[in-house]
Each structure stands twice: as structure tokens, then as C-alpha cells.
Amino acid sequence: MTPKPTTAAGAQAPSARDLRTATLDAAARLLATAGPDGLTIRKIAAAAGCSTITVYHYFQNKQGLLDAVYVEGHTRLSEAQRRQQFTDDPEADVRNTCLVYRDIALANRYYFHVMFGQLDSVHRPTGDTRATGRENFARFIEVVRRWGERTPLRTDPESAAHALWACGHGMVALELTDNAPHSAAAHRYRTAIDLMMTGLRT
To answer: What Pfam families does the entry give (predicted)?
Structure first.
């Protein structure tokens, strides 16, 4: 087995994957805390502990980096939610998909700013970048549809999925922006999802 390259101090050099992730993390954090004007390749490289050449190598330019941050955030959310879906208990699938949304949002708060924040027209994801988010929501509609096949719902699966997603996202957004009560946040979130699901049943 070929050993990993080491730094001058003898520590293992970061892998390409580690460098890419560190760069994405730094970009998300800078965009969320400093705004679009604070998002420069030089600052990103310094925060990620790499060279500007490395940033350009992986992402070509600032827009490419922004698109990659958006996709990475939605990919992390999608992968976590996939693990909760399409089991033998469709109702639990719906609930758990909603619950894990909050977990991923809290663990990736800077990414969520890019995914759902009010960015200016110059710093918006481009092209098919938004496809990851659309695909994730489309899969959630299917999860809700399976639930509705066992438990008749008051509305169609797409409307029910939108209501649940909006409820969960709204509560998460308030929590991330420190506009929600600090105590028992997880319990309040779970209670809101349960109330929504109860209301959606006929």
C-alpha cells in the first residue's frame, strides 16, 4: 500500500477530498458571516488552510465554488434523509425525514444559509445546480404518497409534503437565526411535526 504524502513536519498531508471539503466549509462560513462581499478566493484559501491555486483547481472560479457549496449542502441533507425513508413503516418514514432535517440543519448551519438564504442576483447558484434540492423534495413527496396509501390524507401528497417541509424549515430557520425559544427546541420541533401529521390525516 502506498503511504500518504506527509508534510515537512511529518504529519500526513490532507487528501484531495479533505481539501475540497475544507474549502467548501470555509466558503459556506464566509458567505454566511461576511456576506457576498466578504467571499474572496484569498480569504477562502486562508480559512481552508490551502493556496488560492488549490481553490481554483477544484472550482475554477467563485461562482463554481458557490454552486459546489449549494450542491454539497443539499447532498448532505439528501443522504441523511435517504437513510430514514422507504422502510416498512411509511408514517415513520415521513416523521423521521422531517426530524433529520433539523439535525442536518443544525450541523450545517452555514450551508443552509447558502441553500435557502436571500442571496443577491450575482451570488445565486446557476444552471442545474438546484436540481439536487428539487430531487430531494420530489423524493419526499413519494414518501408522503406511500404514507397516504395506508392513511388517507386530507389533501394530495404534494400539498401535504409542502406543508410538512415548510413547517419544519420555518422552525429550523427561526432556530438558526436565534429567533426561537432556546429551551426544549428538539421537543417543540417534534411536537410541531406530529401536530402537522395529525392534522393531515382525514
So the answer is: TetR_C_33 (PF13305), TetR_N (PF00440)
